[in-house]
Design brief:
Layout: E1 2-12, E2 18-29, E3 34-38, H1 45-52, E4 60-65, E5 68-69, H2 72-85, E6 86-89, H3 102-112, H4 118-128, H5 144-156, E7 162-166, H6 174-186, E8 190-194, H7 201-204, E9 207-211, E10 217-222, H8 223-227, H9 230-235, E11 240-246, E12 249-255
Parallel strand pairs: 3-8, 3-9, 6-7, 7-8
Antiparallel strand pairs: 1-2, 1-4, 4-5, 9-10, 11-12
Helix pairs in contact: 3-4, 3-5, 4-5
Bound molecules: adenosine-5'-triphosphate (ATP) and magnesium ion (MG).
Adenosine-5'-triphosphate (ATP) binds next to helix 1.
């Protein structure tokens, strides 16, 4: 479904120096496979998801979607089909919400892609995310978690083949997080999900790709095997040390548990 071959990407800094933020990224993802994308702040996760969504183009290397090379000319010719198939939920939901009401926000993609059961789908997904009572509200007036739910409803209602979710649980409360994890598990969809909440890892996917601080892939394999691989977790800085007490004894050691 998705194949990246030796992708690299760099941004320009204010002095127009090229700063490489993804290096030699290669992987293949099968149809309906779900993959966790892990790495510390600034490692390049969001940049990679934007490349896979055709919002950025690699400086070197190739990205294939369904065996087609995705470049500017491919997107020019196949923009609608590609955008319907590959949906990105960005890290900051506010940056993606621009319609006057939640109803319009969810209906937007459905109208754009020519669905004929728009009203039914809006209500169906609003019910799933328990946002029926705010359908008339302005998306900008909502809480962080409500915005996240509206964004997810607007992405899922067009039933994309590939879901790229950038920290989808960051603003969600525990019940909604639990619900989303189960919901994603029930969907037959190819998904790449970035998260800092590694404790959700096994629930979200069987496979993890870890980008290191060096912006290269430093692990691609099973989530369970990763959780048992302390040297890789330390290298990826996916574990943290903090002080805590065992009765009289105060000490520090590595922890995998989430802070939330
Ligand atoms: N538009 C931009 N212009 C210049 N540099 C950028 C831009 N976007 C991201 N960067 C830089 O690219 C690097 C990778 O950023 P990216 O957002 O992909 O990281 P991330 O892994 O998603 O981090 P986080 O966990 O904080 O979301 C960072 O050093 C960041 O400063
Ligand atoms: Mg990010």
């Amino acid at each position: 479904m998705i194949e990246c071959k030796h992708l690299s990407y760099s941004y320009q800094d204010f002095q127009l120096n090229e700063i490489e933020v993804l290096k030699d990224i290669s992987f293949k993802i099968d149809k309906d496979e779900k993959v966790l994308l892990l790495g510390i702040n600034g490692s390049g996760k969001s940049t990679l998801l934007k490349l896979l969504n055709g919002l950025l183009f690699a400086k070197n290397g190739e990205y294939y979607f369904k065996n087609e090379l995705v470049n500017k000319s491919y997107l020019k010719a196949n923009s609608k089909e590609f955008r319907k198939s590959v949906s990105l939920g960005m890290q900051d939901p506010s940056s993606m919400l621009f319609n006057p009401s939640v109803y319009d926000e969810i209906a937007f993609g459905l109208k754009h892609f020519g669905f004929d059961d728009i009203d039914e789908r809006v209500h169906h997904y609003a019910k799933k995310f328990e946002i029926q009572s705010i359908l008339k509200s302005s998306p900008l007036s909502l809480s962080g978690g409500q915005k996240q739910k509206v964004l997810l409803a607007s992405l899922l209602c067009v039933e994309p083949e590939v879901l790229l979710l950038d920290e989808p649980t960051a603003h969600l409360d525990p019940p909604t997080t639990g619900w989303l994890v189960e919901f994603l598990d029930s969907l037959n969809v190819t998904a790449i999900i970035s998260t800092h909440n590694i404790s959700l890892g096994k629930e979200l996917a069987k496979r993890a790709i870890v980008i290191g601080a060096n912006h290269e892939i430093i692990y691609d394999g099973g989530v369970q095997a990763l959780l048992e691989d302390m040297p890789t977790l330390i290298k990826a800085q996916l574990v943290h040390k903090h002080k805590h007490n065992h009765e009289e004894l105060e000490h520090k050691h590595y922890h995998l548990h989430s802070w939330v």
